[in-house]
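Protocol step 4 of 5: obtain the predicted structure for the target chain.
Materials: sequence only (see below). No template structures provided, no constraints applied. The aim of this step is simply to have a reference model before the mutagenesis design in step 5. Sequence pasted as it appears in the construct record:
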Amino acid sequence: MTVATRPATYREVFAEPSFRTLFAARTFAISATSLQIFALSVLVYTTTESPLLSAVAFGAGFLPQFAGGLLLGSLTDRLRSRPLIVTGYAVEAALSAVLALAGLPVGVALALVAAVACFAPVFNGAAAKVIAEHLTGDAYVLGRAVSSMSSSFAQLLGLAGGGVAVAALGASHALLLAAAFFLVAATIVQTFLTTPPGSLAAPPAPPGTSAPPSGTSPSPASAATRTDQGRRNAIRDSWTGATAMLADRTIRRLLLAQWLPPALVVGAEALLIPYSANRGLPPGAGALLMAGPAAGMLIGDLVIGRFVPPTWRERLVFPLVLLLGAPLLLLPAAPPLPVTAALLVLSGFGSAYSLGLQRAFLEAAPEHRVGQLFALLSTGLMALQGVGPLLSGAVAELATPAVAIACAGAATTLVAVTTRKPR
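Step 4 output (structure tokens):
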């Protein structure tokens, strides 16, 4: 599918079977993730009454992805995509089940979430690579918009369901529901995502080794040696590729533009439950406020992705980043609940700025490292979204959640400069 000179349509995007499959699976998976994060944050806050620990619970699955993306990212180009994606969803399902049933101390639970998160960039990079392989031109940009809309809609479902599930069933049962959603996502990918036969080339033999003669099988010792060397090569190749891409000025600018604003905004979102509690808002208001940015993202991706021409998307990047941060500056004024929710929706709309970067980002990808570049994008995005809640939580401990949210909004407007092309 090639759409280069005109805006793509939803029909063209959904005509691709692989995209349809990943769209459906991702909807279930993001709903599960939102439900898991909300239930865990509520559980930690009610147990500790600490804004910092609540923010850490919100971001525990983000920061560790930095290590996984740097050291394992090349696996997205070395292994088949479908098994990687299915494994990722299955591992997340197991994590939610353990959190629900094992009765772990807060520190142990957060450490387990962090350990599983190390592998997330590989799984996410595999899914992004599949989409990039099957959609090109503006169809790819619209596909990314639809994926983002799916994420926003799924977050709304997860947060709405999370508020209801935690209130009606308790946090543990809500985590079991999240595990079930992850299993549905894994089943969808395993059943419907096709992998072209022979699409994976065997990794090259390590230097100094040779393939066994025709008609013979390698000895167990030599096979074990090659396996160990292959693992070391995967780590070395991942590191080499990541450092080379980060050294590229264009790729680095596009990565920073997609990393920094979301990290700061997520730091603010991680404090919405303590913010709601400090203001004495009605029960369930925390879930309503957390749903605001997701609703804004859904609207923004729909409007900017479908109805704004490609060239205008790129021109709107800078003002949309400003819109992402500016509404957060007003939250310390404690506006009425509907106004607060509307400000968060407006901020979420600004997240559509990333659509204006997608065409340039895909064009900048090295030909043989497309999957790793997407894994690197996911790595920095998730890792910095782990740092954001930590910083905002620390500010909230020293001041108030409202002040910390405003600081995140101010910083977002300042980093908007990273989205501008150098002249």
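Step 4 remarks: The two ends are 33 Å apart (CA to CA). Confidence is low (pLDDT under 50) at residues 197-217, 219-227.
Proceed to step 5.
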